[in-house]
Amino acid sequence: MGLMNTGKKEGSQIIQLFGRGVRLKGRDMSLMRSSRLDPVLAPKHLYLLETLNVFGVGADFMATFRDFLKDEELPGNDKPEIHTLKLNVMEDVGKSLKMLRPKVRQDTKQAYSFHRNGPLVRFGQPVTVSSNEFYSELGLTPDIVLKERKVELDRYPRVESLQASGVKDVMAKPGQAKQHERYFDDDHLLFVDMAALERDLERYRRTRGYANLLIDASRFPALLKSQVWYTLLVPDDQWKLHADNFKRYQSMALELLSLLMDHVFNYHRRAYLEPRMELVALEDARGNLPDTNEYQLVIDGSESALIDDIKQMKEAIEDNRHAAYRSSKSNGVSAVQIGAHLYNPLLHLGKDSRIRVEPVALNDSEFRFVEDLKVWLERNQQAIAERGEQLYLLRNLVKQGVGFFEAGGFYPDFILWHVQEDRQRIVFVDPHGLRHTGPKDEKIEFGERIKDVERRLKNNQVELESVILAPSSTTREWIISHWGMTTEELRNKHVLFMSDSDYLDSLMKVVVGEPKAEVFIQP
Q1: How far is CA 328 from CA 36, 125, 234, 245, 319, in A?
Q2: pLDDT tens-digit profile of 283-294?
Q3: How far apart are CA 361 and CA 299, in angstroms?
Q4: Is the bond into 345 cis (omega within 30 degrees of 0)?
Q5: Its domain of life (predicted)?
Q6: CA nearest neighbour of 329 among 345, 353, 311
Q7: Residues 6+ positions from 44 with CB-CB distance below 8 Å
Protein backbone atom coordinates (compact mmCIF):
# COMPACT_ATOMS: atom_id res chain seq x y z
CA MET A 1 0.00 0.00 0.00
CA GLY A 2 1.41 3.38 -0.98
CA LEU A 3 0.33 6.63 0.66
CA MET A 4 1.17 10.19 -0.39
CA ASN A 5 0.86 13.17 1.94
CA THR A 6 -0.94 11.02 4.48
CA GLY A 7 0.04 11.01 8.10
CA LYS A 8 2.05 14.20 8.16
CA LYS A 9 0.83 14.69 11.70
CA GLU A 10 -0.82 12.59 14.36
CA GLY A 11 -4.55 12.30 13.83
CA SER A 12 -7.54 9.98 13.84
CA GLN A 13 -7.18 9.12 10.12
CA ILE A 14 -3.78 7.49 10.40
CA ILE A 15 -4.55 5.93 13.78
CA GLN A 16 -7.58 4.17 12.28
CA LEU A 17 -5.51 3.06 9.29
CA PHE A 18 -2.92 1.34 11.44
CA GLY A 19 -5.58 -0.03 13.78
CA ARG A 20 -7.42 -1.85 11.01
CA GLY A 21 -4.39 -3.41 9.32
CA VAL A 22 -5.25 -6.49 7.27
CA ARG A 23 -8.35 -8.58 7.92
CA LEU A 24 -7.36 -12.25 7.61
CA LYS A 25 -9.67 -15.22 7.68
CA GLY A 26 -6.93 -17.19 9.40
CA ARG A 27 -6.74 -20.86 10.09
CA ASP A 28 -10.17 -22.35 10.92
CA MET A 29 -11.69 -18.86 10.59
CA SER A 30 -9.81 -17.71 13.70
CA LEU A 31 -9.13 -14.21 12.27
CA MET A 32 -5.55 -14.58 13.52
CA ARG A 33 -2.25 -14.69 11.70
CA SER A 34 -0.92 -18.24 11.61
CA SER A 35 2.27 -17.30 13.46
CA ARG A 36 0.13 -16.01 16.36
CA LEU A 37 -2.23 -18.96 16.37
CA ASP A 38 -0.15 -22.09 15.95
CA PRO A 39 3.63 -21.54 15.67
CA VAL A 40 4.37 -25.24 15.20
CA LEU A 41 2.36 -25.58 12.00
CA ALA A 42 3.04 -22.15 10.49
CA PRO A 43 5.22 -22.27 7.35
CA LYS A 44 8.52 -20.51 7.88
CA HIS A 45 7.95 -17.47 5.64
CA LEU A 46 4.17 -17.24 5.74
CA TYR A 47 4.34 -14.12 7.90
CA LEU A 48 5.56 -12.18 4.84
CA LEU A 49 2.23 -12.82 3.11
CA GLU A 50 0.33 -11.83 6.23
CA THR A 51 2.08 -8.50 6.68
CA LEU A 52 0.65 -5.18 5.48
CA ASN A 53 3.45 -3.00 4.08
CA VAL A 54 2.70 0.73 4.18
CA PHE A 55 4.97 3.10 2.24
CA GLY A 56 4.53 6.78 3.04
CA VAL A 57 5.67 9.59 0.74
CA GLY A 58 5.95 12.96 2.43
CA ALA A 59 4.93 11.46 5.77
CA ASP A 60 6.97 10.96 8.91
CA PHE A 61 4.29 9.45 11.10
CA MET A 62 5.69 5.93 10.75
CA ALA A 63 8.79 6.87 12.73
CA THR A 64 6.66 8.74 15.29
CA PHE A 65 4.37 5.74 15.60
CA ARG A 66 7.29 3.37 16.23
CA ASP A 67 8.68 5.75 18.86
CA PHE A 68 5.26 5.71 20.52
CA LEU A 69 5.27 1.91 20.62
CA LYS A 70 8.75 1.94 22.12
CA ASP A 71 7.79 4.48 24.80
CA GLU A 72 4.78 2.39 25.78
CA GLU A 73 6.92 -0.80 25.85
CA LEU A 74 4.77 -2.40 23.14
CA PRO A 75 6.16 -4.80 20.52
CA GLY A 76 7.40 -3.06 17.39
CA ASN A 77 5.98 -5.78 15.11
CA ASP A 78 9.44 -6.77 13.96
CA LYS A 79 10.04 -10.12 12.34
CA PRO A 80 9.09 -12.83 14.85
CA GLU A 81 11.93 -15.03 16.05
CA ILE A 82 11.33 -18.75 16.60
CA HIS A 83 13.52 -20.53 19.14
CA THR A 84 13.38 -24.28 19.69
CA LEU A 85 14.02 -26.36 22.80
CA LYS A 86 14.45 -30.13 22.70
CA LEU A 87 11.57 -32.07 24.22
CA ASN A 88 12.56 -35.48 25.60
CA VAL A 89 9.83 -38.13 25.81
CA MET A 90 10.20 -41.11 28.15
CA GLU A 91 10.37 -44.27 26.06
CA ASP A 92 8.36 -47.52 26.48
CA VAL A 93 6.42 -46.41 29.58
CA GLY A 94 3.33 -45.83 27.44
CA LYS A 95 3.02 -49.56 26.84
CA SER A 96 2.33 -50.34 30.50
CA LEU A 97 0.35 -47.30 31.68
CA LYS A 98 -3.40 -47.43 31.19
CA MET A 99 -5.55 -44.60 29.85
CA LEU A 100 -9.19 -43.97 29.02
CA ARG A 101 -10.54 -43.33 25.55
CA PRO A 102 -13.73 -43.96 23.55
CA LYS A 103 -13.88 -47.35 21.86
CA VAL A 104 -13.06 -47.69 18.17
CA ARG A 105 -15.95 -48.39 15.77
CA GLN A 106 -15.52 -51.62 13.83
CA ASP A 107 -16.94 -50.18 10.59
CA THR A 108 -15.05 -46.87 10.33
CA LYS A 109 -12.01 -47.78 12.46
CA GLN A 110 -12.41 -44.39 14.19
CA ALA A 111 -13.09 -43.69 17.86
CA TYR A 112 -16.71 -43.03 18.76
CA SER A 113 -17.50 -39.33 18.55
CA PHE A 114 -20.71 -37.76 19.78
CA HIS A 115 -20.45 -35.06 17.11
CA ARG A 116 -20.12 -37.57 14.27
CA ASN A 117 -22.08 -40.54 15.53
CA GLY A 118 -24.38 -39.30 18.31
CA PRO A 119 -28.08 -38.44 18.06
CA LEU A 120 -29.47 -34.96 17.48
CA VAL A 121 -30.00 -32.82 20.57
CA ARG A 122 -33.16 -30.71 20.20
CA PHE A 123 -32.66 -27.83 22.60
CA GLY A 124 -35.84 -27.04 24.53
CA GLN A 125 -37.83 -29.89 22.99
CA PRO A 126 -39.47 -32.65 25.11
CA VAL A 127 -37.12 -35.45 26.10
CA THR A 128 -37.63 -38.90 27.60
CA VAL A 129 -34.89 -40.85 29.43
CA SER A 130 -35.93 -44.49 29.43
CA SER A 131 -33.29 -45.63 31.94
CA ASN A 132 -34.98 -43.83 34.84
CA GLU A 133 -38.41 -43.16 33.28
CA PHE A 134 -37.73 -39.43 33.24
CA TYR A 135 -39.67 -36.97 31.05
CA SER A 136 -39.25 -33.22 30.62
CA GLU A 137 -41.48 -31.06 28.47
CA LEU A 138 -38.69 -28.46 28.19
CA GLY A 139 -35.88 -30.89 27.41
CA LEU A 140 -34.24 -30.47 30.82
CA THR A 141 -31.88 -33.13 32.18
CA PRO A 142 -32.56 -35.42 35.16
CA ASP A 143 -29.78 -33.92 37.28
CA ILE A 144 -31.32 -30.45 36.96
CA VAL A 145 -34.84 -31.57 37.80
CA LEU A 146 -34.26 -34.43 40.24
CA LYS A 147 -31.01 -33.31 41.91
CA GLU A 148 -31.67 -29.56 41.65
CA ARG A 149 -28.35 -28.82 39.97
CA LYS A 150 -29.59 -25.55 38.60
CA VAL A 151 -27.87 -23.06 36.34
CA GLU A 152 -26.86 -20.09 38.48
CA LEU A 153 -26.36 -16.48 37.40
CA ASP A 154 -25.43 -13.86 39.99
CA ARG A 155 -25.50 -10.20 38.95
CA TYR A 156 -24.84 -8.82 42.42
CA PRO A 157 -21.52 -6.97 42.74
CA ARG A 158 -18.76 -8.86 44.52
CA VAL A 159 -17.34 -6.78 47.37
CA GLU A 160 -14.55 -7.78 49.72
CA SER A 161 -12.77 -5.69 52.36
CA LEU A 162 -9.61 -5.70 54.45
CA GLN A 163 -9.90 -4.44 57.99
CA ALA A 164 -7.23 -3.73 60.60
CA SER A 165 -7.25 -5.94 63.70
CA GLY A 166 -8.91 -4.37 66.72
CA VAL A 167 -11.28 -2.24 64.63
CA LYS A 168 -14.97 -2.74 65.43
CA ASP A 169 -16.66 -4.79 62.72
CA VAL A 170 -19.35 -2.45 61.41
CA MET A 171 -19.43 -3.64 57.80
CA ALA A 172 -21.59 -6.47 56.53
CA LYS A 173 -19.58 -9.47 55.50
CA PRO A 174 -19.75 -10.71 51.89
CA GLY A 175 -22.79 -12.88 51.33
CA GLN A 176 -24.77 -11.48 54.29
CA ALA A 177 -26.83 -9.00 52.27
CA LYS A 178 -30.22 -10.35 51.18
CA GLN A 179 -30.21 -11.43 47.55
CA HIS A 180 -33.38 -11.72 45.50
CA GLU A 181 -34.15 -14.57 43.14
CA ARG A 182 -35.73 -13.46 39.87
CA TYR A 183 -37.55 -15.25 37.08
CA PHE A 184 -38.57 -13.96 33.69
CA ASP A 185 -42.28 -13.23 33.29
CA ASP A 186 -44.39 -11.97 30.39
CA ASP A 187 -43.66 -8.33 31.26
CA HIS A 188 -39.88 -8.77 31.16
CA LEU A 189 -40.01 -11.01 28.08
CA LEU A 190 -41.74 -8.21 26.14
CA PHE A 191 -38.39 -6.44 26.07
CA VAL A 192 -36.31 -9.45 25.01
CA ASP A 193 -35.58 -9.58 21.28
CA MET A 194 -36.13 -13.27 20.51
CA ALA A 195 -34.73 -13.01 16.98
CA ALA A 196 -31.49 -11.48 18.28
CA LEU A 197 -31.41 -14.09 21.04
CA GLU A 198 -31.68 -16.87 18.44
CA ARG A 199 -28.85 -15.35 16.37
CA ASP A 200 -26.59 -15.01 19.39
CA LEU A 201 -27.31 -18.56 20.56
CA GLU A 202 -26.70 -19.90 17.08
CA ARG A 203 -23.36 -18.10 17.03
CA TYR A 204 -22.56 -19.54 20.46
CA ARG A 205 -23.52 -23.05 19.28
CA ARG A 206 -21.11 -22.82 16.35
CA THR A 207 -18.35 -21.42 18.54
CA ARG A 208 -18.71 -24.31 20.98
CA GLY A 209 -18.74 -26.89 18.19
CA TYR A 210 -22.19 -28.30 19.01
CA ALA A 211 -22.69 -29.61 15.48
CA ASN A 212 -25.59 -31.93 16.29
CA LEU A 213 -27.64 -29.52 18.43
CA LEU A 214 -30.76 -27.87 16.99
CA ILE A 215 -32.19 -24.59 18.31
CA ASP A 216 -35.91 -23.75 18.23
CA ALA A 217 -36.52 -20.10 19.16
CA SER A 218 -40.22 -20.77 19.81
CA ARG A 219 -39.18 -22.61 23.00
CA PHE A 220 -37.29 -19.66 24.52
CA PRO A 221 -40.27 -18.01 26.33
CA ALA A 222 -41.33 -21.27 28.00
CA LEU A 223 -37.75 -22.00 29.05
CA LEU A 224 -37.17 -18.54 30.50
CA LYS A 225 -40.49 -18.52 32.40
CA SER A 226 -39.73 -21.90 33.98
CA GLN A 227 -38.59 -21.74 37.60
CA VAL A 228 -37.16 -25.26 37.57
CA TRP A 229 -33.75 -24.98 35.95
CA TYR A 230 -32.15 -21.66 36.89
CA THR A 231 -31.45 -19.31 39.77
CA LEU A 232 -31.09 -15.65 38.78
CA LEU A 233 -29.88 -13.20 41.42
CA VAL A 234 -30.32 -9.56 40.39
CA PRO A 235 -30.46 -6.31 42.43
CA ASP A 236 -33.74 -4.36 42.41
CA ASP A 237 -32.39 -1.47 40.35
CA GLN A 238 -31.30 -3.84 37.55
CA TRP A 239 -34.55 -5.80 37.45
CA LYS A 240 -37.24 -3.12 37.61
CA LEU A 241 -39.05 -2.39 34.35
CA HIS A 242 -37.10 0.53 32.97
CA ALA A 243 -35.57 1.39 29.61
CA ASP A 244 -32.08 1.39 31.16
CA ASN A 245 -32.46 -2.32 31.95
CA PHE A 246 -33.70 -3.62 28.59
CA LYS A 247 -30.20 -4.55 27.43
CA ARG A 248 -29.62 -6.25 30.78
CA TYR A 249 -32.67 -8.48 30.25
CA GLN A 250 -31.29 -9.48 26.85
CA SER A 251 -27.86 -10.21 28.29
CA MET A 252 -29.25 -12.25 31.18
CA ALA A 253 -31.48 -14.32 28.90
CA LEU A 254 -28.56 -15.06 26.58
CA GLU A 255 -26.23 -16.07 29.40
CA LEU A 256 -28.83 -18.30 31.07
CA LEU A 257 -29.72 -20.12 27.85
CA SER A 258 -26.05 -20.47 26.89
CA LEU A 259 -25.28 -22.11 30.24
CA LEU A 260 -28.30 -24.38 29.86
CA MET A 261 -27.18 -25.32 26.35
CA ASP A 262 -23.77 -26.36 27.71
CA HIS A 263 -25.39 -28.44 30.43
CA VAL A 264 -27.91 -30.17 28.13
CA PHE A 265 -25.38 -30.92 25.39
CA ASN A 266 -22.80 -32.31 27.83
CA TYR A 267 -25.46 -34.50 29.45
CA HIS A 268 -26.40 -36.10 26.13
CA ARG A 269 -22.75 -36.42 25.12
CA ARG A 270 -22.01 -38.12 28.43
CA ALA A 271 -24.97 -40.49 28.04
CA TYR A 272 -23.71 -41.48 24.59
CA LEU A 273 -20.01 -41.92 25.46
CA GLU A 274 -20.35 -43.52 28.93
CA PRO A 275 -20.96 -47.08 27.69
CA ARG A 276 -18.35 -46.65 24.95
CA MET A 277 -15.26 -45.91 27.08
CA GLU A 278 -12.43 -48.41 27.48
CA LEU A 279 -8.97 -48.76 29.02
CA VAL A 280 -6.05 -48.93 26.60
CA ALA A 281 -2.28 -48.58 26.77
CA LEU A 282 -1.24 -44.93 26.93
CA GLU A 283 0.66 -45.16 23.65
CA ASP A 284 -2.59 -46.22 21.92
CA ALA A 285 -4.55 -43.27 23.36
CA ARG A 286 -3.71 -40.76 20.69
CA GLY A 287 -3.46 -37.12 21.67
CA ASN A 288 -2.13 -37.58 25.20
CA LEU A 289 1.55 -37.12 24.35
CA PRO A 290 3.02 -34.26 22.29
CA ASP A 291 3.39 -35.11 18.62
CA THR A 292 6.59 -33.08 18.32
CA ASN A 293 10.15 -33.49 19.64
CA GLU A 294 10.71 -29.83 20.43
CA TYR A 295 9.14 -26.75 21.93
CA GLN A 296 8.76 -23.69 19.77
CA LEU A 297 9.04 -20.30 21.47
CA VAL A 298 7.92 -17.38 19.31
CA ILE A 299 8.88 -13.82 20.25
CA ASP A 300 8.86 -10.48 18.45
CA GLY A 301 12.32 -9.56 17.20
CA SER A 302 12.25 -6.29 19.17
CA GLU A 303 12.02 -8.05 22.56
CA SER A 304 15.78 -8.28 23.15
CA ALA A 305 15.50 -8.83 26.92
CA LEU A 306 13.11 -11.76 26.54
CA ILE A 307 15.20 -13.21 23.71
CA ASP A 308 18.21 -13.18 26.06
CA ASP A 309 16.05 -14.88 28.70
CA ILE A 310 15.12 -17.65 26.26
CA LYS A 311 18.77 -18.18 25.37
CA GLN A 312 19.78 -18.38 29.04
CA MET A 313 17.03 -20.92 29.70
CA LYS A 314 18.12 -23.05 26.73
CA GLU A 315 21.75 -22.96 27.88
CA ALA A 316 20.79 -23.98 31.43
CA ILE A 317 18.52 -26.86 30.34
CA GLU A 318 20.16 -28.21 27.17
CA ASP A 319 23.86 -27.43 27.62
CA ASN A 320 24.38 -27.45 31.40
CA ARG A 321 21.54 -29.97 32.00
CA HIS A 322 20.24 -28.16 35.05
CA ALA A 323 17.10 -29.55 36.66
CA ALA A 324 15.42 -26.13 36.66
CA TYR A 325 15.73 -22.58 35.42
CA ARG A 326 13.96 -19.67 37.10
CA SER A 327 13.65 -16.48 35.07
CA SER A 328 14.55 -13.26 36.86
CA LYS A 329 11.94 -11.43 34.77
CA SER A 330 8.30 -11.31 35.77
CA ASN A 331 7.22 -12.00 32.17
CA GLY A 332 10.06 -14.38 31.27
CA VAL A 333 10.21 -18.13 30.70
CA SER A 334 11.11 -20.72 33.36
CA ALA A 335 11.66 -24.46 33.07
CA VAL A 336 11.70 -27.51 35.33
CA GLN A 337 12.66 -31.14 34.73
CA ILE A 338 11.10 -33.86 36.85
CA GLY A 339 12.02 -37.51 36.38
CA ALA A 340 8.47 -38.77 36.93
CA HIS A 341 7.05 -36.76 34.04
CA LEU A 342 6.68 -38.55 30.71
CA TYR A 343 8.34 -35.71 28.82
CA ASN A 344 10.77 -32.98 29.87
CA PRO A 345 11.26 -30.12 30.43
CA LEU A 346 8.03 -28.34 31.41
CA LEU A 347 7.89 -24.61 30.70
CA HIS A 348 6.21 -21.72 32.49
CA LEU A 349 5.56 -18.18 31.28
CA GLY A 350 5.38 -15.20 33.59
CA LYS A 351 2.38 -12.90 33.79
CA ASP A 352 1.59 -10.99 30.58
CA SER A 353 4.52 -12.64 28.81
CA ARG A 354 4.91 -11.80 25.13
CA ILE A 355 6.42 -15.21 24.44
CA ARG A 356 4.20 -17.79 22.76
CA VAL A 357 4.96 -21.45 23.44
CA GLU A 358 3.82 -24.65 21.76
CA PRO A 359 3.06 -27.13 23.36
CA VAL A 360 1.28 -24.89 25.86
CA ALA A 361 3.25 -23.77 28.93
CA LEU A 362 2.11 -24.20 32.54
CA ASN A 363 0.39 -21.46 34.50
CA ASP A 364 1.48 -20.33 37.97
CA SER A 365 -0.38 -22.91 40.09
CA GLU A 366 0.48 -25.76 37.70
CA PHE A 367 4.18 -24.88 37.73
CA ARG A 368 4.20 -24.60 41.50
CA PHE A 369 2.56 -28.04 41.78
CA VAL A 370 5.25 -29.62 39.56
CA GLU A 371 8.05 -27.94 41.55
CA ASP A 372 6.52 -29.08 44.86
CA LEU A 373 6.03 -32.63 43.55
CA LYS A 374 9.65 -32.75 42.39
CA VAL A 375 10.85 -31.85 45.91
CA TRP A 376 8.44 -34.36 47.52
CA LEU A 377 9.59 -37.20 45.25
CA GLU A 378 13.25 -36.49 45.94
CA ARG A 379 12.56 -36.51 49.68
CA ASN A 380 10.58 -39.78 49.58
CA GLN A 381 12.46 -41.56 46.81
CA GLN A 382 13.91 -44.30 49.01
CA ALA A 383 10.61 -45.13 50.74
CA ILE A 384 8.81 -45.35 47.39
CA ALA A 385 11.46 -47.74 46.01
CA GLU A 386 11.35 -49.95 49.12
CA ARG A 387 7.59 -50.40 48.71
CA GLY A 388 8.03 -51.36 45.07
CA GLU A 389 5.95 -48.42 43.85
CA GLN A 390 6.32 -46.28 40.76
CA LEU A 391 4.86 -42.83 40.13
CA TYR A 392 4.39 -41.23 36.71
CA LEU A 393 3.06 -37.79 35.83
CA LEU A 394 1.70 -36.38 32.58
CA ARG A 395 0.46 -32.93 31.68
CA ASN A 396 -2.91 -33.53 30.04
CA LEU A 397 -3.04 -31.74 26.70
CA VAL A 398 -5.83 -29.17 26.52
CA LYS A 399 -8.79 -30.33 24.38
CA GLN A 400 -6.70 -33.21 23.02
CA GLY A 401 -6.01 -35.38 26.03
CA VAL A 402 -8.43 -37.12 28.36
CA GLY A 403 -11.68 -35.23 28.88
CA PHE A 404 -14.63 -36.13 31.08
CA PHE A 405 -18.06 -35.08 30.00
CA GLU A 406 -19.39 -36.24 33.35
CA ALA A 407 -17.97 -32.88 34.42
CA GLY A 408 -19.12 -30.74 31.53
CA GLY A 409 -16.16 -31.33 29.26
CA PHE A 410 -13.57 -31.27 32.07
CA TYR A 411 -9.94 -31.75 30.98
CA PRO A 412 -7.86 -32.19 34.18
CA ASP A 413 -4.44 -30.55 34.01
CA PHE A 414 -2.43 -33.57 35.17
CA ILE A 415 -2.66 -37.36 35.19
CA LEU A 416 -0.78 -39.14 37.98
CA TRP A 417 -0.24 -42.93 37.90
CA HIS A 418 0.56 -45.01 40.95
CA VAL A 419 1.82 -48.42 39.80
CA GLN A 420 2.46 -51.34 42.14
CA GLU A 421 2.89 -54.82 40.68
CA ASP A 422 -0.06 -55.31 38.29
CA ARG A 423 -2.32 -52.68 39.82
CA GLN A 424 -2.67 -49.04 38.81
CA ARG A 425 -4.38 -46.06 40.37
CA ILE A 426 -4.98 -43.24 37.90
CA VAL A 427 -5.48 -39.89 39.63
CA PHE A 428 -6.58 -36.81 37.72
CA VAL A 429 -5.17 -33.70 39.40
CA ASP A 430 -6.36 -30.19 38.60
CA PRO A 431 -4.91 -27.03 40.21
CA HIS A 432 -8.13 -25.08 39.88
CA GLY A 433 -9.31 -21.68 41.13
CA LEU A 434 -12.37 -21.99 43.37
CA ARG A 435 -13.39 -18.40 44.10
CA HIS A 436 -15.77 -18.22 41.15
CA THR A 437 -17.27 -21.69 41.51
CA GLY A 438 -19.42 -23.32 44.18
CA PRO A 439 -19.92 -26.62 45.98
CA LYS A 440 -22.25 -27.87 43.21
CA ASP A 441 -19.74 -27.17 40.44
CA GLU A 442 -19.40 -30.24 38.21
CA LYS A 443 -15.61 -30.25 38.57
CA ILE A 444 -15.96 -30.39 42.36
CA GLU A 445 -18.48 -33.23 42.26
CA PHE A 446 -16.41 -35.13 39.73
CA GLY A 447 -14.43 -36.73 42.56
CA GLU A 448 -17.55 -38.78 43.30
CA ARG A 449 -18.75 -39.24 39.71
CA ILE A 450 -15.43 -40.67 38.54
CA LYS A 451 -16.12 -43.75 40.65
CA ASP A 452 -19.12 -44.39 38.35
CA VAL A 453 -16.70 -44.38 35.43
CA GLU A 454 -14.51 -46.86 37.30
CA ARG A 455 -17.43 -49.21 37.96
CA ARG A 456 -18.48 -49.18 34.30
CA LEU A 457 -14.97 -50.26 33.24
CA LYS A 458 -15.23 -53.47 35.34
CA ASN A 459 -11.45 -53.79 35.72
CA ASN A 460 -10.29 -54.84 39.20
CA GLN A 461 -6.70 -53.85 38.51
CA VAL A 462 -7.39 -50.17 37.76
CA GLU A 463 -8.83 -47.53 40.09
CA LEU A 464 -9.72 -43.92 39.25
CA GLU A 465 -9.61 -40.84 41.46
CA SER A 466 -9.85 -37.09 40.99
CA VAL A 467 -8.36 -34.30 43.11
CA ILE A 468 -8.86 -30.52 42.97
CA LEU A 469 -5.96 -28.38 44.21
CA ALA A 470 -7.01 -24.90 45.28
CA PRO A 471 -4.18 -22.40 44.57
CA SER A 472 -2.42 -20.62 47.42
CA SER A 473 -4.58 -17.52 46.95
CA THR A 474 -7.61 -19.53 48.15
CA THR A 475 -7.56 -20.80 51.74
CA ARG A 476 -9.73 -23.44 53.35
CA GLU A 477 -11.14 -20.85 55.73
CA TRP A 478 -12.38 -18.73 52.81
CA ILE A 479 -14.04 -21.73 51.12
CA ILE A 480 -15.67 -22.93 54.35
CA SER A 481 -17.11 -19.47 55.08
CA HIS A 482 -18.39 -18.87 51.55
CA TRP A 483 -19.50 -22.38 50.59
CA GLY A 484 -20.95 -23.40 53.94
CA MET A 485 -19.07 -26.71 53.87
CA THR A 486 -17.11 -28.46 56.61
CA THR A 487 -13.53 -29.69 56.43
CA GLU A 488 -14.85 -33.27 56.32
CA GLU A 489 -17.08 -32.50 53.33
CA LEU A 490 -14.20 -30.88 51.44
CA ARG A 491 -12.00 -33.87 52.22
CA ASN A 492 -14.62 -36.31 50.92
CA LYS A 493 -14.75 -34.37 47.66
CA HIS A 494 -10.92 -34.50 47.42
CA VAL A 495 -10.52 -30.72 47.56
CA LEU A 496 -7.01 -29.92 48.85
CA PHE A 497 -5.36 -26.54 49.42
CA MET A 498 -1.93 -25.60 48.17
CA SER A 499 -1.74 -23.07 51.00
CA ASP A 500 -1.24 -26.05 53.36
CA SER A 501 2.41 -26.92 53.85
CA ASP A 502 1.58 -30.66 53.74
CA TYR A 503 -0.89 -30.67 50.86
CA LEU A 504 1.28 -33.10 48.88
CA ASP A 505 1.26 -35.58 51.78
CA SER A 506 -2.54 -35.42 51.66
CA LEU A 507 -2.53 -35.83 47.89
CA MET A 508 -0.23 -38.85 48.03
CA LYS A 509 -2.47 -40.59 50.51
CA VAL A 510 -5.21 -40.36 47.90
CA VAL A 511 -2.79 -41.51 45.18
CA VAL A 512 -1.63 -44.65 47.00
CA GLY A 513 -5.19 -45.56 47.95
CA GLU A 514 -5.32 -45.14 51.70
CA PRO A 515 -8.84 -44.87 53.15
CA LYS A 516 -10.35 -41.39 53.04
CA ALA A 517 -10.60 -41.26 56.79
CA GLU A 518 -6.81 -41.32 57.00
CA VAL A 519 -6.32 -38.36 54.66
CA PHE A 520 -5.10 -35.65 57.01
CA ILE A 521 -5.89 -31.99 56.41
CA GLN A 522 -4.95 -29.33 58.91
CA PRO A 523 -7.99 -27.91 60.69
Answers
A1: 25, 57, 45, 49, 19
A2: 776 567 777 888
A3: 14
A4: yes
A5: Bacteria
A6: 353
A7: none
